[in-house]
Amino acid sequence: MTQVPTPQTFQEAYAGEAPWDIGRIQSAFAAIADHVKDPILDAGCGTGDMALYFAAKGHQVTGLDYLEEPIRRARAKAAERNLKVDFRVGDATKLTELTDRFNAVVDSGLFHVFTDDDRRKYVAGLAHVLNPGGRVFLMCFSNEEPGEFGPRRITRDELKSAFATGWQIQSIEPNYFEINPNFKGAKFSEGGPKTWFVTIERRT
Ligand SMILES: C[S@@+](CC[C@H](N)C(=O)[O-])C[C@H]1O[C@@H](n2cnc3c(N)ncnc32)[C@H](O)[C@@H]1O
Q1: Which domains are assigned to the chain?
Q2: Each residue's pLDDT tens digit in the chain (204 positions)?
């Protein structure tokens, strides 16, 4: 069933094989990595592979997730690899409480977990933490992914509406999520669930 997940949904996923936890950055993000300027916020960073990828490129990175367990694992990976990332436990719907400012926010699989109300809070928070000219790079499930298994499907119109004021949407491109091969419940399109990869600039 399509669902708006709770913290417990994610806790249960991390207790097993979380489908998104592929042990490396998603290829869609690796493809645009050279366009991402630091300081970078990885919102909903999970176990930290994307944040660590950017840290390994020499960028200043903050990784935020509301669960202790993925942040614990992310910190352990950083220590093992001798990389510095500011991994924090925190709620991405409360970014307006942060005093930090970023030139980029990367979001792999967070935007599509929110209720309509939380989505509005999240986007307001993105506007708060991004410097003018800063960019959001996000990938979410697309309405072109058939069925109802997994997170909410998002349409182009919803993306345009969410980022209507104070933003310029630079591109909305079809892409796909790579899935953890050890996740056995996959009911997605062949090759991975269909997504939108979205690049948005903060204007004012
Ligand atoms: C689909 S997973 C993606 C994780 C990671 N970005 C990746 O690609 O591996 C979504 C992540 O967002 C986190 N999350 C969900 N709601 C959140 C919120 N309100 N604030 C911070 N993190 C949240 C979950 O705990 C989970 O780790």
Answers
A1: 7-202 (3.40.50.150)
A2: 456 889 999 999 999 999 999 999 999 999 999 999 999 999 999 999 999 999 999 999 999 999 999 999 999 999 999 999 999 999 999 999 999 999 999 999 999 999 999 999 999 999 999 999 999 999 999 999 999 999 999 999 999 999 999 999 999 999 999 999 999 887 899 999 999 999 999 997
DSSP letter at 69 equals H
Beta strands in 14-70 (DSSP E): 40-43, 61-65
Q: Which residues line ligand 1 (CB under 6 A)?
A: 10, 20-21, 44-46, 64-67, 70, 91-93, 108-110, 113
Pocket test for ligand 1, best of 66, 72, 145, 179 (most atoms within 8 A of CB): 66
- Tokens matching residue 38: 């630091």
Coil, strand or helix: which one is 117? helix
